[in-house]
Amino acid sequence: MKAAGNPDLGPVVRLFLSINPPPEVIAQLVTEQSTLRRRLFDRFGDELAIRWTKPSQFHITLIFLGNLFLHQTDRIRDEIKKIAASQTFPPMELCGLGCFPRIRSPRVLWIGVKQNSQLEKLQTALMERLTPHLALNDRDLFSPHITLAKIKAKRAPRDFAEFITELSRSQSNPIASWTAKSVSLMQSVNGSDGVEYSSIAEFSGE
Predict the structure, then answer these.
(1) Which of 52, 113, 148, 153 has its CA 20 to 30 A from that of 41?
(2) What is the reported pTM?
(3) Which residues contact 182 (CB under 8 A, 6 or more apart)?
């Protein structure tokens, strides 16, 4: 089960599973991010307070695992390895822009990942395998996306939603596409510049 924190049981780590884009896709995302940054500034100027995601932090969350005791991770790694070895890794296609929690009250600006049967099968297999050990539920299963920026303003500019919607509609082709090769076990750590993510294990198919 997920850890609430107990000094007698050792350190606690905050973990999730992701698919991380390869270097050439990161380069394409940097270009897209730069273009979007320029367009937003040209339209809204300093009215839109926004913090852009570092390229090293681009990832696609599959499942949020939560806070775990470090000693729990050995079992989790074994289970993930079994799933990775039994799955056909999915094609990934980046397309469309959106916001969480809603486009009219945005906190996260993202680029979408087109769902496909292999991606859904991988997520489902991981959920089914890990739920008995971690008490996961549907809230831990993520709609695949890559965060491009965090919006810091309490209220977005008046026509922000319409602007993002129009930009998304204008994308006639996917931003990038590739075939995933592995699943990453990621750790989330609070730092002086915000939350930082790092891969602590990689699991590829066999």
Answers:
(1) 113
(2) 0.89
(3) 19, 20, 84, 89, 202, 203, 204, 205
